Amino acid sequence: MEKKSTTESTPQVEKSPSGIKQKRKLPEPSFNNSTNVKSSTNDPSLHQGRKRSRPHIDGDWPTHIYIPINFEEKSQEILQKVIKKLAQEDKSNVWHSLIEKNTEVFSLHLSLSRPSFLKTDERDDFINQMRKFIGGVDLSWNWTFTFKSFGGPDK
After folding, report:
1. What is the domain range of residue 82?
2. Exposed site from 1, 47, 79, 150, fewest CB < 10 Å?
3. 81-101 burial by CB neighbour count: b if 16+ within 10 A, else e?
4. Residue 62 located in a structural domain
5. Are the C-beta atoms of 96 and 80 separated by less than 8 Å?
6. Centroid of chain to Cα 33
7. Is position 134 within any domain?
8. What is the C-alpha separation between 28 and 30, in angstroms, rounded?
9. Closest C-alpha to 111, from 143, 69, 50
10. Domain count, the chain
11. Of 40, 49, 65, 34, which Cα lies nearest the Cα of 133?
């Protein structure tokens, strides 16, 4: 017998002053001032156990393009229930939640690029080029998330 459960979550729809429903826009791009970050050592505990694929080099800035993900309370509740259920069914200890660490330092995101390395003097030009490019992009998207659980052939 196939075990199936589906939960859907869509973002809240904002109402304009006239009462008309509107899609909520994605957050504007954030170009964090990474000069405040001091991470010249390889400390896997800061990255869920991951190790650097390339050693730190002063003057090189690992850079990637991403969309930050901020879960609303209802979405967080659903994800926490899913993770708890998966952890109960699968005892491999690989199931954990990053949404509890959803802070500025541990922000969840959807990567749109692979990491590339910029030299210090290339950063400002890169940021300006990205701002120009993103300035012409419509950032209002409608997101739908679906969670499905299927039992294996023995269930």
Report:
1. 1-10+57-121+145-155
2. 1
3. ebbeeeeeeeeeeeeeeeeee
4. yes
5. no
6. 18
7. no
8. 6
9. 69
10. 1
11. 65
Q: What is the DSSP string of the chain?
A: -----EEEE-PPPEE-TTS-EEPPPPPPP----GGG----S--GGGGTT---SS---TTEEEE--EEE----HHHHHHHHHHHHHHHHH-TTS----SGGG-SSTT--EEE-S--EEEEGGGHHHHHHHHHHHHHTS-------EEEE----TT-
Tell me the longest C-alpha to C-alpha distance in the chain.
60
What is the pLDDT at residue 30? 61
User: Does residue 6 register a pLDDT over 60?
Assistant: no
Q: Which two tokens stand for residue 65?
A: 């393009």
Domain assignment present for residue 127? The answer is no
Nearest to 93 by CA among 48, 53, 155, 47: 48
CB 148 within 8 A of CB 2: no
Provide the whole-model pTM: 0.46
Closest C-alpha among 118, 124, 125 to residue 59: 118
Per-residue pLDDT of 36-92, as tens digits, reads: 455 556 677 776 677 777 888 888 888 888 887 777 788 888 888 888 888 888 877
Label residue 107 by pLDDT band (50, 70, 90). Answer: low
CA distance 46 to 130: 28
Phi then psi dihedrals of residue 69, to 5 deg = -115, 120
